[in-house]
Amino acid sequence: MAFDLIQQRRQEEKKQKFKQDLGIAFIISAITILLLAAAVCFAIYKTNKNNHHNSVAAHNQEAPPPPPPKPKTTQGVVKSVCANTDYKKTCEESILKEVKTKNNATATPMDILRASLVATFKVVDDVTRQAKGLEFKTPMTKAALNDCLVLLNDGRDEVNSSIASVRGARVGRMRTAKAELDNWLSAVISYQQTCLDGFPEVADKEKVRKILERVKMFGSNALSVASQVSAALTEAETSNGSQRKLLVFNWMNNNHYRRILKSNGLKFTPNVTVAKDKTGNFSTINEALGAMPKKFKGRYVIYVREGVYYENVVVAKDMKNVTLYGDGSQKTIITGSKNFVDGVTTFETATFVAIGARFMAQSLGFRNTAGPEKHQAVALRVQSDRSIFVNCRIEGYESTLYVQAHRQFYRNCHITGTVDFIFGDAAAMFQNCMINLRKPLESQQNVVTAQGRAERRETTGIVLQKCKILADKKLEPEKAKVKSFLGRPWKEYSRTIVMESEIGDVIQPEGWKEWNGDLGLKTLFYAEYNNKGAGASTKDRVKWGGYKTLKRDDVLKFTVGPFLQAEDWLKAADVPVRFGMFS
Ligand SMILES: *[C@@H]1O[C@H](CO)[C@@H](O)[C@H](O)[C@H]1NC(C)=O
Ligand SMILES: *[C@@H]1O[C@H](CO)[C@@H](O)[C@H](O)[C@H]1NC(C)=O
Ligand SMILES: *[C@@H]1O[C@H](CO)[C@@H](O)[C@H](O)[C@H]1NC(C)=O
Ligand SMILES: *[C@@H]1O[C@H](CO)[C@@H](O)[C@H](O)[C@H]1NC(C)=O
Ligand SMILES: *[C@@H]1O[C@H](CO)[C@@H](O)[C@H](O)[C@H]1NC(C)=O
Ligand SMILES: *[C@@H]1O[C@H](CO)[C@@H](O)[C@H](O)[C@H]1NC(C)=O
User: Fold this and answer.
1) Topology of domain 74-239, per CATH?
2) What is the pLDDT of residues 466-493, one digit of tens each?
3) Each residue's pLDDT tens digit, 181-228
4) N or C, which terminus of the chain has less Cβ within 10 Å?
5) Which atom of ligand 3 approaches the CA of 30 most closely?
6) The domain defined by 255-573 carries CATH number 3.40.50.150
7) Is 23 exposed, middle or buried (0-12, 13-18, 19+ CB in 10 A)?
8) Which ligand 4 atom is nearest residue 296's CA?
9) Distance (Å, whole) CA 371 – CA 12
10) CA 543 to chain CA centroid, nearest Å
C-alpha cells in the first residue's frame, strides 16, 4: 500500500489508465495462451492482439501518429509495467532479460513480476560478491562489513521467499502475496541502509554505497512492479463480477472494528524453564535457545524465572515461533552494556536480538545499562517478522529500541530513553505503551523516534497509538532545561504517526526536529491525530511540507489491521489488541 498522499494524487490519473491497459493486457495474454495451448486458429490470436495494440502504445506515448498495426509484445507490457518505477531503464532491461514465456507468448503481468524478483535476487547475489571483495582496516569498519554481509544474506533469503510466494500465487491470491512482497522487499531496502549506517567514515560509506545502490534500485523497482501488477490483477478479478471491492479495507467499516481483550495473565505451558538458581532446565536463556529442537510443531515456549540475566541473546533466524515469558518486566530482566563508544557497531550493541519470525515476548525487561555517555547502546533489536511484545519494559538511553525491519506489535510496554530511542525501519505499532523520556547529557536533546524509511515505496513506519509520552521522574523537574521532540527524519522518507495519545509538555511546541538541514523535510510523513495532553497542541508545530494533517480515513490506514496485516497473527497469538481506533 502506498500511503504517500502527494504521490498518490500525482499518480492517480496515470494509474487509472494504466490499470485499464494492464487489465486488458492481462486478459489478452490469458486468451492468447489458451489459444496457443489448444493450437487453434493462430489468425484470431493475431487479430485479437492487433485490435488492442493502440491502448498500450498510446499509454507509452511512443506510437507513431497513424499507428501501423503491430502485434502487442512482451516489450510493450514490460514497458507499461515499468512506467511508474523510479528507474525505468533498469526495470525494462532487467525484466526483459529474465522474463520467460512458453512459445514466445506475450508475457503476463505475473511473468513480469516474477522476472522482476528474479532480477532482484541476482543483484543481491552479485552485490554480495562485490562486497566480499572489499577490504577495510579498522576493527569498526571490518565489523561493519561483516554486519553488511549478514544483512545481505538476510536480504537474499527475503527475495527468495518473495519469489516462492508469487510462484504459487494464483490471481485470486495476489492480494495476500502483495502484502508479503511489500514486507519482504521493504526489509531488503532497510537492510542495505542498515549496512551503510554501520560505517562511521563518510569515505567508507560512499565506497559501500556505490556497490549497494543497486539493491535499493532493484528493491524499489520490484515494489513498484508488484503494486502495478497487483492493481491490474485485482482489477481484472473484480471487474468480472462477484468479488468486487474485497476485504482489504474491511476494517475501515465501523461495524468491523474488533476489540479482542483477553486477560493479560496469559497462561503458557513452558517447554523449558530457565532459572538462575538451577531449579529450571537451564540457567541461561542462551542455553535454552541452543537446546531448541531443529524441527517442531507450533511454538517453543521458554519460561524465564525472576532474576537479572547478564546475557547477550540472539534469537537466530532459524529459531522461529519462540515465545519467551517472564515473571514481570521488573522481575525477569535481561541486561547488557555494549555500546558505540567502546567500539561496537550500533547494530551489534543490542542486549537482546530477535530475528526468527513470530517471536513473542511477554512480561520481560530488556536493558542496556551503558548510560548516556556511551551514546548508542541498544537494549532490544527486532528484525523478527510478526513479532509481539506484551507487558515488556525496554530501558536505555540513546537508541534503546531498534525496530529494525518487518512487522512488529508492542502492547502495554514501557520504553525509556533519550536520543532517538525508538528507531529503525520496521512497520512498528505501539499500542497502549508508556514512553518515558529520561535526562540526557548536558549537550543533548531528547528525540522519541527516528524512523528510517529510505525509499518512498517501503511500507514501514512507526505508529504510536493510545500511548503516553511523558518525562520520567528524574527529568520531570528539569524538563524545562531539556528540549524534547517527537521525532526526527533519520532517512528521507521517515514516517511516524502519533494518534490518540497523551503528549506531555516535555515535548517542545514545534514537536519535531530536523536531522540534518532540510534533509527529508518535504518527503517525510509525520502526523498527529486526536492526541491530548499539555504538549499535544499542533498550533505551533513545524511547517514542513511533510508534516501532515490527516483525516480519519487517512489515519485508519495506520491502524493494526491494514498497517501490519495483523488480523490473523495477532488473533492466533491471543494477545490484547485494538484493531482500528480507540474512539
Ligand atoms: C522465440 O523467439 C526467438 C527470437 O525471436 C526465436 O529465435 C525462437 O525460435 C522463438 N522460439 C519459439 C519457441 O518460437
Ligand atoms: C529459495 O527458497 C527455496 C524454498 O522456498 C529453497 O528450496 C531454495 O534452496 C532457496 N534458494 C536459495 C538460493 O536460497
Ligand atoms: C469471468 O466470469 C465468467 C462467468 O462468471 C467466467 O466464465 C470467466 O472465466 C471469468 N473470467 C475471468 C477472467 O475471471
Ligand atoms: C512444547 O510443549 C507443548 C505442550 O505444551 C507440546 O505440544 C510441544 O510439542 C512442545 N514443543 C517442543 C518443541 O518440545
Ligand atoms: C525440564 O524440566 C522439567 C521439570 O524438571 C522436566 O519435566 C522436563 O522434561 C525438562 N525438559 C527438558 C527439555 O529437559
Ligand atoms: C510457526 O507458526 C506458524 C503459525 O502458527 C506455523 O504456520 C508454522 O508452521 C510454525 N513453524 C514451526 C516451525 O512450527
Assistant:
1) Butyryl-CoA Dehydrogenase, subunit A; domain 3 (1.20.140)
2) 999 999 999 999 999 999 999 999 999 9
3) 999 999 999 999 999 999 988 999 999 999 999 999 999 999 999 998
4) C
5) 13
6) no
7) buried
8) 13
9) 49
10) 27
